[in-house]
TrEMBL record:
Molecular-function GO terms, alphabetical: hydroxyisourate hydrolase activity
Assembly behavior: Homotetramer.
Catalytic activity: 5-hydroxyisourate + H2O = 5-hydroxy-2-oxo-4-ureido-2,5-dihydro-1H-imidazole-5-carboxylate + H(+)
Ranges of residues in domain Transthyretin/hydroxyisourate hydrolase: 4-107
One Pfam family of this chain: Transthyretin
Function per UniProt: Catalyzes the hydrolysis of 5-hydroxyisourate (HIU) to 2-oxo-4-hydroxy-4-carboxy-5-ureidoimidazoline (OHCU).
Residues annotated as binding substrate: H7, R42, Y105
Record-given protein name: 5-hydroxyisourate hydrolase
Species in which this protein is naturally found: Knoellia koreensis
CDD domains noted in UniProt: TLP_HIUase (cd05822)
Family: Belongs to the transthyretin family. 5-hydroxyisourate hydrolase subfamily.
UniProt keyword annotation of Hydrolase present: yes
Native organism taxonomy: Bacteria, Bacillati, Actinomycetota, Actinomycetes, Micrococcales
Gene Ontology terms describing biological process: purine nucleobase metabolic process
Keywords per UniProt: Hydrolase, Purine metabolism
Length: 108
């Protein structure tokens, strides 16, 4: 199991956001993992089984998701930069998404 997972909920329709491409990168832009949200809006494992301490970036293809739904969105992608302080811990990065905004937090 990876030390990183995510969950995306589309708050504009009150459902999980299925089919969003998610990419994990170093802050230098090197891709180190990817996945697509499932029917529950989750990617249960992204990237290597252990992330070294440092900063990372998650990219969510929100524009393509809304376009596929016939919705005009404002953000073509959502990019979240976060810090791994302990490579032995699990990190969960949920996103609450709608066509004109988003929020995130460190989950469990």
């Amino acid at each position: 199991m990876s030390t990183l997972s995510t969950h995306v909920l589309d708050t504009s329709v009150g459902r999980p956001a299925q089919g969003i491409e998610v990419t994990l990168e170093t802050v230098a832009g090197e891709g180190i993992g990817s996945g697509v949200t499932d029917a529950d809006g989750r990617v249960g494992s992204i990237g290597p089984s252990r992330l070294s301490p440092g900063d990372y970036r998650l990219r969510f293809a929100s524009g393509a998701y809304f376009e596929a739904s016939g919705v005009d969105g404002f953000y073509p992608e959502v990019v979240i930069v976060f810090t791994v302080s302990d490579g032995e811990e699990h990190y969960h990065v949920p996103v609450l998404l709608n066509p004109y905004g988003y929020s995130t937090y460190r989950g469990s």
